[in-house]
Amino acid sequence: MVFLVRTDLGMEKGKIAAQVAHAAVELYKKAEHRCPDKLRAWESEGAKKVVLKVGSESELLEYFRRYANDFCSAIIRDAGRTQIAPGTITVAGFGPDEDEKLDRAFGHLKLL
Question: In this structure, is residue 66 part of a structural domain?
Fold first, then answer.
């Protein structure tokens, strides 16, 4: 799985962790129905998760538009109870899928 986190929001580490966890759970639920074979392979190979950074909502949404149909995907919007305004898009998640396929799409982005 790959997670794209917006760095322009200034989220604290715990907030980022919670948002990525929301995306992971959402992707897992989707993968159970859409691509159970990929999910089982991902689990058997160690359930790899990579967190990358993007600089803006528009950049995140561009990746989502480009790759949402190629992978199981999820957009996370914050509930607005702590640091971020309600409805703010914080993270996009993709996968699980083959490392090579995810690397082709997102490998040029920097780790968070």
Answer: yes
